[in-house]
Amino acid sequence: MQTMTDRHDLATPTLLEASQMSQLEPNAPILRIIGKAPLSGHVPISGAKNSILALMAGTLLSSEGCRIRNVPYLADVQRMGDILETLGVKISRNGEVLDLDTSNLTTNSAPYELVSKMRASFFALGSLLARLGSARMPLPGGCAIGARPVELHVRGLQALGADVQIEHGIVIAHAKSRNGRLQGARIYLDCPSVGATETLMMAATLTEGETIIENAAQEPEVVDLANLCRAMGAKIRGAGTNTIFIDGVDKLHFADFTAIPDRIEAGTFMVAAAITRSTLSMSPVVPWHLTAAISKLQDIGVTVRQDSDNMITVIGGDRYRAVDIETLPYPGFPTDMQAQFMALLTVCEGNGVVTETVFENRLQHVAELNRMGANIRLKNNVAVVTGVPQLSGAPVMATDLRASAALVIAGLAADGETTVMGLHHLDRGYDRIEEKLRNVGAKLYRTTANVTVS
Hints:
It is a single chain. This protein has a 4-stranded mixed β-sheet with strand order 21-22-1-23, covered by helices on one side. The chain has a 4-stranded mixed β-sheet with strand order 2-14-16-15. A 4-stranded mixed β-sheet has the order 4-5-3-13, covered by helices on one side. It has helices at residues 4-8, 18-21, 49-58, 75-86, 112-115, 124-132, 151-159, 194-204, 220-231, 263-275, 291-300, 338-345, 365-371, 401-413, 423-429, 433-439; strands at 29-34, 40-44, 66-69, 90-94, 97-101, 134-138, 162-167, 170-175, 186-188, 210-214, 235-237, 243-247, 255-258, 279-283, 303-308, 311-315, 325-326, 351-355, 375-379, 382-386, 395-397, 417-421, 443-448. It contains 16 helices and 23 strands. The protein is elongated. α7 runs parallel beside α8 (194-204). The chain has 2 domains: 4-46 and 261-448, UDP-n-acetylglucosamine1-carboxyvinyl-transferase, Chain (Alpha-beta prism), CATH 3.65.10.10; 49-258, Enolpyruvate transferase domain (UDP-n-acetylglucosamine1-carboxyvinyl-transferase, Chain). By secondary structure, the chain is of the alpha+beta class.
């Protein structure tokens, strides 16, 4: 809990520009950060957001339900729970344990007003179709970071024997076989999409026959979902490679499953330690999930030490050198860490080139970092970052989930006060980030945007 003494260290509210205020709801939350505070201590890492949402969709495959452990407190988790409840799932939560009773699904259709807010909810299409033989799912929403089309999902489901139509923004699918079951097939994905891989893997668990997914995504979250499905009785092998084999079974049963730790949250705190030239340890982590991020930090001049099988320590340095970064599917450098590393590159010596290859609209944070004194030139999907000696606090607007984290960690290193707006993005994917940062020495607190317009 933030104390009044801590708040006395903060300056008077920052003046926000009229253009920024126009984007805020009345009394919208904002985050005020006083930079240059040294960080020290241990950060607990929560369960992986990108895994949990897929796991929740995967529980629909079970006719008995599932218990998921290590579930973070996130807006997206709540939204996915709301969607599952509209389908007839009974959900109860006790701390970080989520119990889902999926024994009595009452409908195959999710409401637009919920699905439109979160893309991951679309993954339920595959599990609903496999379990019930039919499904209706609105086209998804989420962060405005790119088109992320659903063609790969649709073509894959069609290969499995589903009739799929898109009418008035609703994907309507049903199994064409007389018994209402999907049929095993060989599927090649034009690109290794995580969402399509997960949707089709879930759909294939209850098919008749064998399914082979080629050019599959290899992300740890895909492996985690496969492990849940196996715990429920599915027959899956090859998850984590580019070819996944699924032998369909008649039904899936109850499982008690623990989700993996969030590699993107861990990576974000690693960059926070580096940019503030501090020392932070964090656990639990799976170090090999973080190989790309660790390698780039070491190239920059940051020390990363593995203390145990599930703990690492990041030790900031005095001088950093710029590196080039290109986002790629796993095991390449993750697009979800691009914004945070760009924030770090702003204070590295020399020029670093950041190339975003996964999403075409995921460089909107460039303008906000430049507001803080960064020197970033942008052309199409390539940003050239020239290091500056110091960032300066400024009012900034988060444009998506990972951009919000980048602005927060930039604010930690900046001179003066930074005000971050658009916190609904941050709340989608970071579990108690302010509390975790305050516990290691950061000076920040959440308030409302009742400020004067300049």
